[in-house]
């Protein structure tokens, strides 16, 4: 049966085209109208009209002229990242970072707090105060802020803006999103830290070319953010990505989760640290004791340095952990067949000794076709990935609510305060 196309269909089509044009300008700008038409397969007339709307609404601006291709020089257009501003908040168990960014997640101001041993309601109150301070002082007071994004450890119900459970921060069913939305009257998005970092790398870092990728972080624990078909995959109860509790050693140690032989107990820093300090206390020789007075003070950086200098204890500890992580990642690759795995966290820097062992083990333990296709890439954004990620979540939801969105970016579910963001033109 043929359906009649009414004005509503036409409007939807226009909105989708407008979103597509804006997304093209954002991704490829500065760009000429003729190239937008080529990339979107829309007619030059349609592009000209949509661009006119976007300029009038403040989303796009012209930024000079491009090379002439045998006629008038074309005007180049770019996304107006100053059309709005975002408050991005990164909560960890050792510090609280709060930043003001533009719509490209470029940081304009940043404040850091070290909430020593602060957890529970007191920490939630500090976050609210810190956001208040940022919004009441400096640039934020003058600017059209469009939303707040928060990254936090623990199990997060992104749709409700509630931190269901965070052992580290002593939060159970904390309605952080509604709390902040009530006070500040912006849309607030709360996201798990690993998912936030995964989205940060996907939108602004090493993950940009990929629609199917896994961000893996190795530090005090092991976690994964799964981006499948361009969207974050949360699982049924929101806990997808618990790579650290993949059991790979049936004779291994008991994990805090109750299981035996979890990956985390073989490759996370506390496990490596325990193995290294135990060996030194047993009398195994190492240069580490010349670098630190007390072996308990050894850090990932020092261990990497010792391994690169050929210290056998450090080499063995990191190689062993690298092999275990490689096995875990080979399992992941066999299961999901991703385009890329982005490795993040303090143990896996660009010059990390572990990296090559992870790579080698993945190659020998994975299935041939997905194993040969997957790319293992070090992170690009480091600790900043979470701030980029939550800023990106605010931006993509803003564009989605504005433009009906044909946007293919990974999305978090919003928690709205009821008031829609308002873009004021400057
Ligand atoms: Zn476990």
UniProtKB/TrEMBL annotation:
InterPro entries: ATPase_NBD, ROK, ROK_cs, WH-like_DNA-bd_sf, WH_DNA-bd_sf. Pfam families: HTH_24 (PF13412), ROK (PF00480). SUPFAM superfamilies: Actin-like ATPase domain, Winged helix' DNA-binding domain. CDD domains: ASKHA_ATPase_ROK_BsXylR-like. Residues 407-426 are annotated as: Disordered. The keyword Coiled coil does not apply. Keywords: Carbohydrate metabolism, Xylose metabolism. It comes from the Bacteria. GO terms for biological process: D-xylose metabolic process. Transmembrane segments: none annotated. Belongs to the ROK (NagC/XylR) family. Transcriptional repressor of xylose-utilizing enzymes. PANTHER family: BIFUNCTIONAL UDP-N-ACETYLGLUCOSAMINE 2-EPIMERASE_N-ACETYLMANNOSAMINE KINASE, ROK (REPRESSOR, ORF, KINASE) FAMILY. This is N-acetylglucosamine repressor. It comes from Neomoorella glycerini. The lineage of its organism: Bacteria, Bacillati, Bacillota, Clostridia, Neomoorellales. The gene is nagC.
């Amino acid at each position: 049966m043929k359906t009649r196309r009414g004005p509503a269909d036409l409007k939807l089509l226009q909105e989708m085209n407008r979103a597509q044009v804006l997304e093209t300008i954002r991704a490829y700008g500065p760009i000429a109208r003729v190239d937008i038409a080529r990339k979107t397969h829309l007619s030059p007339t349609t592009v000209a009209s949509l661009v006119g709307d976007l300029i009038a609404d403040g989303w796009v601006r012209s930024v000079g002229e491009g090379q002439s291709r045998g006629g008038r020089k074309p005007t180049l257009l770019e996304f107006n990242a100053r059309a709005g501003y975002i408050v991005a908040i990164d909560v960890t168990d050792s510090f609280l970072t709060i930043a003001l960014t533009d719509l490209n997640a470029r940081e304009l101001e940043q404040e850091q707090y070290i909430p020593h041993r602060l957890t529970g309601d007191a920490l939630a109150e500090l976050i609210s105060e810190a956001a208040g301070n940022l919004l009441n002082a400096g640039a934020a007071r003058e600017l059209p802020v469009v939303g707040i994004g928060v990254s936090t450890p623990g199990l997060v119900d992104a749709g409700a803006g509630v931190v269901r459970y965070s052992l580290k921060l002593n939060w159970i069913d904390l309605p952080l999103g509604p709390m902040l939305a009530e006070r500040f009257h912006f849309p607030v998005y709360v996201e798990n830290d690993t998912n936030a970092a995964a989205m940060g790398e996907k939108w602004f870092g090493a993950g940009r070319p990929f629609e199917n990728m896994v961000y893996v972080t190795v530090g005090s624990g092991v976690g994964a953010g799964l981006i499948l078909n361009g969207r974050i995959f949360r699982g049924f109860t929101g806990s997808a990505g618990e790579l650290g509790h993949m059991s790979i050693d049936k004779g291994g140690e008991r994990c805090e989760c109750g299981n035996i032989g979890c990956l985390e107990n073989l490759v996370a820093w506390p496990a490596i640290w325990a193995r290294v300090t135990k060996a030194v206390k047993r009398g195994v020789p190492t240069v580490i004791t010349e670098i630190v007075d007390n072996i308990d003070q050894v850090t990932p950086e020092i261990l990497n340095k010792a391994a690169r200098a050929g210290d056998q204890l450090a080499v063995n500890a990191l190689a062993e952990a690298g092999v275990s992580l490689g096995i875990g990642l080979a399992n992941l690759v066999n299961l999901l067949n991703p385009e890329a795995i982005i490795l993040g966290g303090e143990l896996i820097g660009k010059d990390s000794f572990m990296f090559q062992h992870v790579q080698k083990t993945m190659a020998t333990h994975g299935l041939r076709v997905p194993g040969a296709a997957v790319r293992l890439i070090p992170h690009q954004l480091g600790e900043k990935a979470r701030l980029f990620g939550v800023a990106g979540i605010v931006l993509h939801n803003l564009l989605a609510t504005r433009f009906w969105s044909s946007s293919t970016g990974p999305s978090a579910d919003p928690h709205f305060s009821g008031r829609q963001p308002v873009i004021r033109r400057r």
